[in-house]
Amino acid sequence: DGDGIVDLIDICDSDPDNKCDITKDQEYITTTTITTLSTDNGEASLQITSGDVSSDTDITIERNPTLTPNFALATQGGSAAKTVLSYTFSPEGTSLNNPMTLTLYWNDTDNDGREDSTNLRENKFDIYWYNPTTAQWEAQVVNCDLTNNFCMYQVTHFSDYTLAEQQDVQMLIYDENDGEEYACDAVIEFY
Predict the structure, then answer these.
(1) Mean per-residue pLDDT for 115-125?
(2) Of 86, 103, 100, which Cα lies nearest the Cα of 57?
(3) CA angle 143-96-82, nearest 5°?
(4) pLDDT recorded at residue 158
(5) What residues contact residue 43 under an 8 Å CB cut-off, 6+ apart?
């Protein structure tokens, strides 16, 4: 199709703009390319500048269909997290010369502080990276823009990244005075 990507790995082998699927984007990147790859559904983008890659390569952003909204993640340290959305940035394992800005967006059309499709709380959002060595998702402790509904992270390698809500943990408290147990919410942070 003339986009410089071999048809075997081309996400849209008959579309030179690679816009056949709104949850994917792909572009042939040279060492001097300056561009922003973004999915047509507006959920994920990657800013690329000259010198970010050491050799010409095909970069793909693709929605991860196995991590559906509200999927519970196995996280480092055992804290609980639920997925809003997840994307694979590839070729996985690719190390970058310079960090690239990865941005994940969510919808909150009624501005109630909760993502529309999952009802998860925006003020608890973080970007998590999947570490294949530990088989755990690791929170990156990013700052999110709760007004414009996005989180940004400087990636140094390609992998699976997800936008997820850190979950509160319920604890049972025993009251010695009346012999009753009471449930209360707590957030456990690991340092």
Answers:
(1) 96
(2) 100
(3) 40
(4) 93
(5) 23, 63, 85, 87, 104, 105, 106
